[in-house]
Amino acid sequence: MNDVPIAVLLSGGMDSAACxxxxxxxxxHSDIHALSIDYGQRHRVEIDYAAQLAERCGAHSHxxxxxxLSTLSGNPLTDHSVSVPAASDKRQATTVVPFRxxxxxxxxxxxxxxxxxxxxxxxxxxxxxxxxxDCRREFYDALEAALRLGxxxxxxxxxxxxxxxxxxxxxxxxxxxxxxPYELTHTCYAGRRPACGRCDACVERLGAFSANGADDxxxxxxxx
Amino acid sequence: MNDVPIAVLLSGGMDSAACxxxxxxxxxHSDIHALSIDYGQRHRVEIDYAAQLAERCGAHSHxxxxxxLSTLSGNPLTDHSVSVPAASDKRQATTVVPFRxxxxxxxxxxxxxxxxxxxxxxxxxxxxxxxxxDCRREFYDALEAALRLGxxxxxxxxxxxxxxxxxxxxxxxxxxxxxxPYELTHTCYAGRRPACGRCDACVERLGAFSANGADDxxxxxxxx
Lengths: 224, 224
Fold this sequence. Notes:
The structure is a homodimer.
Chain A: E1 6-9, H1 14-26, E2 32-38, H2 45-57, E3 61-66, H3 100-114, E4 119-121, H4 137-150, E5 158-160, H5 168-178, H6 200-211
Parallel strand pairs in A: 1-2, 1-4, 2-3, 4-5
Helix pairs in contact in A: 1-2, 1-5, 5-6
């Protein structure tokens, strides 16, 4: 696979940003089509950062697909009446919209199909395993099978997960080497800039930079 | 399975309406949660009919989930600048939004998950096979696997397809027996009431009623 076009699911977070820069490095002659999902998330500001990342990296295109999951209520990422749990609550599972990844990856595959793109990149990392069952490779294998059987023609769709065996801190190591502008990535579940520094996502991010002996270029309200 | 709640994907078309009445008949004591998807379809009027069908049948709830697939353009069901092909064109495949069924069924599963419902009913019929690969049972089996692997907990989600071996005309036979109010179902791809009578969907519907020696209670602009 050299010059074939590529689709990448770009959330605007650190991992998908590193994936975008890694793709640019690995496939310098391929058109990269980035897709972000606007699902009514509280931290919707991440989509603006995704657009800036796509432009900065020289992506061929950046599209935003709107999937309004706010009717799937009771979830703090989409329901603005539910508070985001602090990392100390150990309640990560409540931040998951049911089958969110399945919906997002399928939507990306649908967009890719309209562009005749068969190679789709997603950036789950090893840290995601425990809380998110849909970040495991066996899940992606099952979804690949469903996509192949459910497409208009019998054509393989490849869901690439280059970072699935890497820890988040290793992906940051890679991203720093590739020059990812981390100040343009968004992580905070509360959607704040400066970031809250208290939610699961902020705490995990700070820990990953710390593990690299690197300084996170973002500003935070507090660093716990 | 007796009194457990049930979710059903209700498009407002004939097949899902028959499925709803069949469920009411088979599971008289179960709460039936109907879900319709607003995906920016040209024939969006079907959602209004879905709401009427749910109420008439005594469904416990009817929710509408908005998935804006109009950015997946070039498809006549969502792109208002593309004309709907007449049945005589033999170009059914162009009316398929990529992975539409995968998205819709997954969205239904996500909604069901928020209600702790594990049994989901969908109404593909045998006639759908040729044009739509995602109406085959093997596709649903693969999607069931992806849903089981992608859920927050390891819990089976059952995708029931009671009509998958039945021809559309047989489903109408069943629906007529169960008292489905077919005047409240919508079929025309062009979204017209009276129905256009010329598109694939209208032609197929008229053929199915005709095969039953029954009269379609809908009014049509023309009956080809």
